[in-house]
Amino acid sequence: MPSSGNSLAAVVMAGGLGTRMRSATPKHLHEILGRRMVDWVVEAARPLGPEPLVVVVSPDTRDAFEGLPTVVQEEARGTGDAVRCAEAALAGAREVLVLSGDTPLLTTELLEALVETHRSRAAGATVLSFVPDDIRSYGRIVRSAEGDLEAIVEAGDASPEQLEIREANSSIYVFQADLLWPAVARLEPANVQGELYLTDAVRDLVDSGEKVVVHVAADPAETEGVNTRVELASAAASLRSRINDAHMLAGVTIVDPQTTWIEPTVTLEPDTVVQPFTILRGQTSVAEGAVVGPHAVVIDAEIGRAATVGPFCYVRPGTVLGARSRAGTFVEVKNTRLDEDAKLPHLSYFGDAEVGAGSNIGAGSITANFDHRPGVPKKRTVIGANARVAVDTMFVAPVVVGDDVWTAAGTVITEDVPDNSLVGFAPRQTIKEGRGGKRDG
Fold first, then answer.
1. N or C terminus of the chain with fewer C-beta within 10 Å?
2. 205 shares its domain with 258
3. CB count in 10 Å sphere of residue 80
4. How far apart are CA 36 and CA 59, in angstroms?
């Protein structure tokens, strides 16, 4: 781990557009499981305590990084220029961790091991390498007889012998700052694009006699970059599996992990059950014994102990389901609290509502919470304990319904109802014979 004081700083390169994504959204801002790609990299680095941690962005994306320290790379002039842009922001740091913003599978454990290798070897720079199944066009790691770095050779410049090398450059590094900044200052463009490559700064250090070592990632997948939507989907599947595996090892039953998507901010207590085709997002928490799904979507909600959600249920932000409560089949619930043992079993919409303990809401019931006047907030419905709401009851908010109230089928509640009342009574059935669809003549 980093030592106290301003020892380690970090810079995340996220200024490229990623044209191979074929998207108006820069590739680093594409979302995977509730986080943008670059945010996965930032969150992997945070536990190392880098001070500061800055993100290099393009002029067009600077506003997308509110809450993160950024520096702007005014022109896309390569990785060397991107790091050089961050020099003033990283002033005072003794070590600089350089990260690529398109490697969402990166883990804190790998970065800790990289920094530890750098320090234990007293290196001027340390390169993170990996050995992929498909080497593709990655730069090759050429080692000296002692095993240290001799060169990083781009695939287009490699000899046939060098192309046989299976060890690749991840574009992730640790540098001693007092060596890095002079090296990037000396960079000159050596290509028609006029770009400055950070690999040339690494070569500069090797040529100057500085010790440059290599740390090999144990799992090559952690260093893989994302450049296309195919690779984005593959990374998402890997992160899904990583998250689901951690929950299952902690005591959660996930019936079908391949169809279950759980964002990293979700908390699940042991002995909860997540059924297939379920999506859990945001700050959702699920307590012990709860069952969620199948085909449920839960966003920023609190699911209480032994509560039941689904199947085919949409639980929206601000919802709290108490112990043993139920939001059932084809139910949508938003910003609503169901107290313990309350049930909203099927085919209903409850928004901006409170349902007391033990109450049961019949099918087809809704809260009419929307006010069409501009700027007027949505109204709340409050239902007391042990209420029995018959099918097709409409609550026109704002309205308060007391404890032990029963409603008749098809009731429209427009006024407050006192405790222990029976309310409703829709018009009685009327039959007019001969007035149906069939006409004489």
1. C
2. no
3. 24
4. 18
Active site residues: 346
pLDDT at residue 399 is higher than 90: yes
Q: What percent of the chain has pLDDT over 70?
A: 96
d(CA 332, CA 153): 56
Rounded to the nearest 5 degrees, what angle is found at the Cα of 74, between the Cα atoms of 96 and 188?
Answer: 65
| 262 neighbors 247 (Cβ within 8 angstroms) | yes
Q: At a CB cut-off of 8 Å and minimum separation 6, what does 88 contact?
A: 71
- Contact call for residues 262 and 248 (beta carbons, < 8 A): no
* Co-location of 157 and 250 in the same domain: no
pLDDT at 66 over 90: no
Helix (H) or strand (E) holding 412: strand 412-413
Secondary structure letter of residue 389 according to DSSP: E
Average pLDDT over residues 166-170: 95
User: Mean pLDDT for the chain?
Assistant: 92
Q: Is residue 434 part of a domain?
A: no
pLDDT at 354 over 50: yes
Residue 308 to residue 312: CA distance in whole angstroms: 12
For 329, phi and psi rounded to 5 degrees?
-70, 130
Phi, psi of 9 (to 5 degrees): -120, 165
DSSP string, 126-144: EEEEE--S--TTPPEEEE-
Q: How many CB atoms lie within 10 A of CB 64?
A: 18
What is the domain range of residue 369? 242-423
- Give the CATH number, domain containing residue 379: 2.160.10.10
Q: Has this prediction a pTM greater than 0.85?
A: yes
CA–CA distance, 339 with 435 (Å, rounded to integer): 48
d(CA 292, CA 317): 16
Same domain flag for 90 and 148: yes
Nearest to 177 by CA among 72, 52, 67: 52
pLDDT in tens, 11-24: 999 987 778 888 88
- pLDDT for 202 equals 95
Q: In the predicted model, is pLDDT for residue 343 greater than 60?
A: yes
Q: Which of 360, 414, 362 is nearest to 387 (CA)?
A: 360
Q: What's the pLDDT at 5? A: 44
Identify the CATH number of the domain in which residue 188 sits.
3.90.550.10
Instruction: Supply φ then ψ for residue 309, to 5 degrees.
Output: -130, 120
DSSP-derived letter for residue 159 is -
Domain membership of residue 402 (yes or no) is yes
Q: How many domains does the chain have?
A: 2
Same domain? 70 vs 167: yes
